[in-house]
Amino acid sequence: MRISIIKNIFFYSILLSILSTNAKAQDRNLTVTQDSKFEQLLNEKRKINPSLTVNERYKIQVFSGDSDKAKKTLNDCKQNFSDLDGTIVFNTPNYKVWVGNFRTRIEAERNLIEIRRKYENAYLIKPQK
Predict the structure, then answer these.
(1) Domain for residue 25, yes or no?
(2) What angle do CA 34, 35, 38 make, to 5 degrees?
(3) CB-based burial of residue 16 (10 Å sphere; 0-12 exposed, 13-18 middle, 19+ buried)?
(4) End-to-end CA distance of the chain
């Protein structure tokens, strides 16, 4: 009885070692094809995500006042400056229209000169969290 158990263990260990030598690891290359809309969605996500834009970037405040005028001003800004992103931020008691998302102060100041031609009260800000 004891010999048959030893034979079985020996047989299964030999069988396992033979089978494991024929096993192959993952050695193939994988090619991923990505839809072009995926990159567009990522860019939109980056625009919307406030943690990426607040405290690292400069913005230009164009308006501060009530909600209706803020919406009109934002629409007007989007038509005049289509290359800049705009948003409305509520800080009690005013709605503020912020335009742009500039990495450096120099870049923001260059755009501020152009924006001041249309909005005289525009000024540069660096929002805090």
Answers:
(1) no
(2) 95
(3) exposed
(4) 77
Q: What is the three-state SS of the chain?
A: CHHHHHHHHHHHHHHHHHHHHHCCCCCCCCCCCCCHHHHHHHHHHHHHCHHHHCCCCEEEEEEEECHHHHHHHHHHHHHHCCCCCEEEEEECCEEEEEEEEECCHHHHHHHHHHHHCCCCCCEEECCCC
Give me the domain span that covers residue 69: 55-125
Task: Record the pTM.
Answer: 0.56
- What the block records as the tokens of 17 is 């070692």
Amino acid in position 40: Q
pLDDT of residue 26: 65
Identify the band that residue 18 occupies on the pLDDT scale cut at 50, 70 and 90. Answer: confident
Number of structural domains (the chain) is 1
